[in-house]
Amino acid sequence: MLSSLTKNKVSRRDFMKACAAMAVYLGLSESFAPKIADAVENASKKAPVVWIEAQSCSGDTEAFLNSSEPTPAQILLDTISLKYQDTVMFGTGYVADKALDDAIKAGGYVLVVEGSIPTADPLFCTVGTESATNPARKPVIDTLKEAYKNAAVVIALGSCATWGGVVQDCPSKGRGVAEVLGKDKVINLPLCPCNPDHLAGTIVYYLTFKKAPPLDIHQRPLMFFGSIIHDNCPRRAHFERGEFVTDYGDPKQADYCLYLKGCKGPFTFSDCPSRGFNENVSWCIKASAPCAGCSQPEFYAGFSPLYVKSNDVNLPGIGGVPSETVGTVAAAVTALGVAAHLVGRSVFGKKKEGDK
Amino acid sequence: MANKIVIDPVTRIEGHLRIEVEVENGVVKDAWSTGTMARGFEAMLLGRQPMDAIYVTERSCGVCTLVHGMASSRTLDMAYGCKVPEAGILLRNLMLAALHMGDHIQIFYNLNAPDYIDITAVAGYKGNDPKLLAIKDKIVSLVKANDTSPFTPTYKNDQYTLTDPEIVTTLVSHYLQAIEARAIAQKCVAIFGGKSPHQAGIIQGGVTYHPNLEDLIKYKESILKVIDFVENVYWKDILFLGAGPLLPVGQAGLGGGYNNYLSGPEFQADESGKDFLWKGGVVTDGNLGAVQPLDGQKIAESVAHSWYDYSNNQPLLAPYEGQTKFNLTKEGAYSFVKAPRYDGKPYEVGPLAWAMTTQPKEFMDIVTKLNIKPGFLARHAARSYQAVDVARNVLKWVDQLAGLMGKGPLIVNDDKPTPNTGKGAGFVEAPRGFLSHWAIIEGGKLKNYQQVVPTTWNGSPRDANNVRGQFEQSLIGIPVPDPENPVNVVRNIRSFDPCLACAIHIIHPESNRILKFVVE
Ligand code: SF4
Ligand code: SF4
Questions:
Q1: Predicted local distance difference test score (pLDDT) of residue A41
Q2: Cis peptide before A190 (omega within 30 of 0)
Q3: Complex ipTM, two decimals?
């Protein structure tokens, strides 16, 4: 971790290696490494970042602190100038408030929004005192509107900030940045929580090229959200063979397909299978937890119920099958149509969601 | 003449919190704690398939993540009638243990320590430790570039601010190491839970992950680094600061409160579900000699001063009967937090409550010898000692799980269909304190779902009898000599490790926003 603090003296080579890795990871050729190094290294021009939490759980902040290459210390000390971030900044109260005001006035920052924006009533989320719309408490939506205006680019981080995520269907009716504040500057980085690599990668891309990476129709970077989980899932062969987990307690089924446990992998665009989480030690499906589809606009209510060994399983194109017979009919059902249906869906899905 | 000071946002906590204090003669006379954000998970869950609750409630908190998934799974364990097999219990323990240690490290170094240091003191470092010199160079270069955010601006220094360059530089170095150590702890959770925050693998009956030796070795290698940090950096720093430069804070007992403490059973020892590493218990009015067993039936919540309505204005409702009906304009209400009470009274939860109800000898000996009284320093000491206690037990569970390997370990009891009707409660002693979930199932769907979380206990507003919550009570008497510098208020609040989705702003006197009024 301290490599960031000493890199100019000792480990220039390691730093260049990291930049080359970053280039590959952004889908660029290694020859971009010097350009990335230049962009990342120039400490006198650290990119100002304003990070505002609306209806959040701080899970994306936590995920950001799990970044590994670059590490949070490298990002904080060398790459960005974090003007406001209420879970980590040292200042509090009016001191924090003023830092935010100053940053917004200066403009030209990367605005990171974490959490959804309440639309049922602005009083569902207030931070601060006094605003034009409320004398006692300041609705976060007022702050976000100001911050959006002067931002150079806006990153909606995590599923809540992209489309409302879990909060979409709550009484506060949380919605995403693009819907509430405007679409033009927004890069959507869904997942619940965000993958910290996606955030670091997007910031580095932006610093290097001064523009957003290529996006899909949901404004997600194609380099991270260009393919369907199901297409890259290590359990896919079991799906094709009709081998499904029906009982977690049976070790024979340990790496079978999770479709009958409610897996939304066939409907979900993300690079979770290759990137994983927490230094790629695992991801949902690797831990036998069915994908909940957290990168999709339908998440969560549109995908509910999750994780369910339903009494009746709805197989696409086939309809309801009683769960007791699933084990015996699954293989036949697969051969008959599930695979074909899902393959069709994913090809269609790619065309539909993959190209802008 | 009293000054009323509003701090909104309170930063470096989880969630959005507003604290108002009334200061007279340099000390806090009265206080109000306000949770300013609500999403409404409980209301959304009604009518849904019960397992959704595990996934959804996990999103309550992204900092001490996984505990809601665990509480919810235990709730459904009971409602579905599942008995968790040994390997499932151990895997749950291993995840929770990693979370406990990682969370406590973060709470102290990254969220609380900045309240006690003047980071500019680093420039005066005269030693020759290459690591510390690198930090000095870095901070000095940031100062030269006139770009030191997010480390500045801050409140002004006061008598408790550490300014010794050697101590501050060491703490800044540990601040940076802590970020790394907590990430390793989260990785340990992810090995079995898929990812962290928001692990995905704890379900009713156990866990979904099938253990293998390779992963267990990975876990052990990583957790050893976390244990090392807890025992050799965190605990030693606390002993040094608590017995040295911050001893006056501990002895003054600033931030004590009611001396009512409550903690739950945790780290299940076997399949019986009766034996736990920590038994939990209840201490009332500081009577440490009379620890009572925890009785879930005595928990009930008031919404008299919260933005909710209860039908027929009932003063208290037990969680099974709980209601989440918003009323954002309710007269006399000032928080989204409800007011949980045990036997009608407010209780503190969290590591200090854990220490007061379990009374570990080593810890009690130290605080007795140093004459440290309940308050914000004692809370940090208890938190670090709890991390040490977990660190001393976790490898035992690793070995136990290794012993089950290859015996076709049963990780989950998954044969149970969703019951048509059922009822369940799940308890977790989370890093932030006692957490409980409560569910009623009817027609295979959730008829009611309630969460009573640690910060609801600690951060509650007044109840139907106008009795203050624990944050509010603990602030009474806290010194605020300068209304522009209420650093002791936030030191105290942060020592609870609040989890609300946070925000404190002080109303700035220059813009004429300190409310001045005469107390009659
Ligand atoms: S349904 Fe899910 S588990 Fe099965 S192959 Fe597809 S993505 Fe993998
Ligand atoms: S596997 Fe599915 S649920 Fe898990 S993080 Fe990826 S998209 Fe989200």
A1: 67
A2: no
A3: 0.92
